[in-house]
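CO-FOLDING WORKSHEET

Operator: S.A.
Ligand of interest: nicotinamide-adenine-dinucleotide
Run index: 264
Mode: holo prediction, single chain
Checklist:
[x] sequence pasted
[x] SMILES validated
[ ] output reviewed
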Amino acid sequence: MALVTGAGSGIGQVTAVELARRGVRAIALADIQQSGLDETKTFVAREGAEVLAEVVDVSNVEQISRFFALTERRLGCPDIIHNNAGTICGEPIWPESPLEKMTQVVSVNLLGIIYGNRIGIEMMSKNGGGVIINTASTAALGPMPTDPIYAGTKAAVVNLTQSCAGLLQSHNIRVNAVLPGMVATPFIEKTGDGEQPAAWLKPILGQIPMLSADQIAEGIIQLVLDQSSAGACLVIENPTKPGGPPLKTLLPDAKSFYRYQLSR
Ligand SMILES: NC(=O)c1ccc[n+]([C@@H]2O[C@H](COP(=O)([O-])OP(=O)(O)OC[C@H]3O[C@@H](n4cnc5c(N)ncnc54)[C@H](O)[C@@H]3O)[C@@H](O)[C@H]2O)c1
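OUTPUT RECEIVED:
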């Protein structure tokens, strides 16, 4: 069975539906918004999977712990976990970003992912293992002057994922990450005042052919199915031409460093 956070919209919604379409028999969905959850629940159920859908704030340790425990009780231990919920500072941009918003971004994008990994790893280790996919971003790969807080949380998710590579040997758990470029979801559309894209983003949006949530879900399924992937970070960049294929690459891993770390 699978567990998906941020499942009420965009990448999380499409991934949950795709997992059901490919035969995952039960899926637990978490999101902070009821309306999106209801929609995803309907789509997933239509594909024949049993569904548990709960309003959960992933940055709240009690709520996310309760959700994982409820999932285990109702549907069993997940074999697949997609830690996906995320948010962005939006406007006003750095360094004027409000402190509350920055705290929320760090809490959701980093603490939420840490909780999902920590609780998921503990649960999966007792049940023979599984695969965890964390949603990071290409923002992790370089400076982002408009929102270094967002970029910093995503860079930390990449490091966390790579640091978990050794869990394949010790716990039969594969932790991987997907790093999407710009994807046409409400996330992008609401980076400004909550209704439209941020002013800094608008000119870029006109120039870059956007990725679709389906293309990201396809990358996520690839990481789920590839039994050899552990600590893998799949970058999915925007196509160079409209209608072109996404550009997929794996981040190189620091093999010598891992060897030393893993042999401790
Ligand atoms: N859209 C992009 O261009 C893009 C690019 C790179 C990475 N990402 C990442 O992809 C992930 C999904 O984003 P998306 O594009 O599908 O956006 P989206 O806005 O369509 O979906 C995000 C979902 O997360 C939920 N969410 C937000 N805070 C939450 C919380 N505290 N607890 C539980 N759920 C919460 C939202 O309600 C929403 O349903 C995010 O982590 C985002 O950072 C998006």
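REVIEW:
Residues 2-181+211-262 form a domain with the Rossmann fold fold (CATH 3.40.50.720).
The chain has ten helices and eight strands.
[x] output reviewed
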